[in-house]
Amino acid sequence: MPKIDLQAVEHVNRTGYPPPFDAPVAGRWYRRLAPATNLTQFGVSHVTLEPGAWSSQRHWHEGEDEFLVMVSGEAVLVDDDGEHVLRAGDCAAFPAGERNGHHLQNRSAADCVFVVVGAGRNEGGDYPDIDMSFTPAGGYVHKDGTPYPAARVP
Amino acid sequence: MPKIDLQAVEHVNRTGYPPPFDAPVAGRWYRRLAPATNLTQFGVSHVTLEPGAWSSQRHWHEGEDEFLVMVSGEAVLVDDDGEHVLRAGDCAAFPAGERNGHHLQNRSAADCVFVVVGAGRNEGGDYPDIDMSFTPAGGYVHKDGTPYPAARVP
Asked: Could you give the maximum distance between any two Cα atoms of chain B, in Å?
């Protein structure tokens, strides 16, 4: 059925981030909606951030477009331009190759929910605030190229 | 800037539907967010339906995946399975090639808003309720293949 029973989709807070970078996303709970609904041409995550949680480490993608729409609650989008409060209905877009690291922080006292869509070439990308990048093969590496003993969660 | 200034994006109610099929979408106002934000790997429309308006004629796509999330207000998703009320936060997915005609109707007394994402191969599709189909080349045809003097709006 086209209308999605969100409760029936696995709800996880998995991350492949090596410590200590995993701590800020422990309160990020998500559902992967595309595989659950037979969509293959883009990915869709339905994400809940608990108070204090981040959507990810601040990052950008070399080859992948991202788009998000806030569904409820409030988050702060942090990017190279500063901080921008997002509330229900607000949208943001992150074109492939634009090296403007971005993430959402829930600084409020309540959960917030957003939907994020991504598609494109898996060409890796960077986390500008920390000694970590991600590779096209799905690995995490130090800025000098040395691998972390961890892999990205699909 | 990643946060989108929605008010700055052109707001239109254009349609390429030939009469009388255009009448139900006259109250459908949308913003094309992908070209406005340099996203190229999927399309995103931010859509407002006035009371009484439909999102489209009931349709399905041969080669394109679609996903939508309700942002505010209430709409009725009509598909081959029946009618399903969508409210803020509800999501729906329409995989390419699934011949389940679908659309949203705003039967409420207030505007409703949703965001819809689409990507894939442009292989045409069908409107099961009316004597019209759409072609990969972007034209509208009768079920017997005779063209309408109209073309799809990009």
From this structure: 48
pLDDT in tens, A46-62: 999 999 999 999 999 99
CA-CA distances (angstroms) from residue B136 to A42, A101, A150? 20, 37, 44
Kind and range of the H or E element at B82? Answer: strand B82-87
Q: Please give, rounded to a whole number of angstroms, the shortest distance from the CA of B45 to a CA of chain A.
A: 11
d(CA B45, CA B55): 11
Q: Is the ipTM of this complex over 0.90?
A: yes
Cβ pair B91:A4 closer than 8 A: yes
Q: How many whole angstroms separate alpha carbon A41 and alpha carbon A117?
A: 10
Chain A residues close to B39, C-beta within 8 Å:
65, 67, 93, 95
**pTM across the whole model:** 0.96
Coil, strand or helix: which one is B23? helix
User: Is B16 inside a domain boundary?
Assistant: no
The answer to whether the CB atoms of A39 and B95 lie below 8 A apart is: yes
The CATH number assigned to the domain holding A87 equals 2.60.120.10
Strand blocks (E) in chain A: 28-32, 43-49, 60-61, 64-72, 74-79, 82-87, 91-94, 103-105, 112-120, 125-127, 132-134, 139-141, 147-151
Specify the DSSP class assigned to residue A109: S
Question: Rounded to whole angstroms, how far apart are CA atoms A18 and A134?
Answer: 12
B119 contacts on A by Cβ (under 8 Å): 41-42, 119
Model confidence over B76-118: pLDDT tens digits?
999 999 999 999 999 999 999 999 999 999 999 999 999 999 9
**What is the domain count for chain B?**
1
The whole domain housing B102 covers 28-146
Q: How far apart are CA B154 and CA B148, in angstroms?
A: 17
Q: What angle do CA B125, B37, B65 make, to 5 degrees?
A: 25
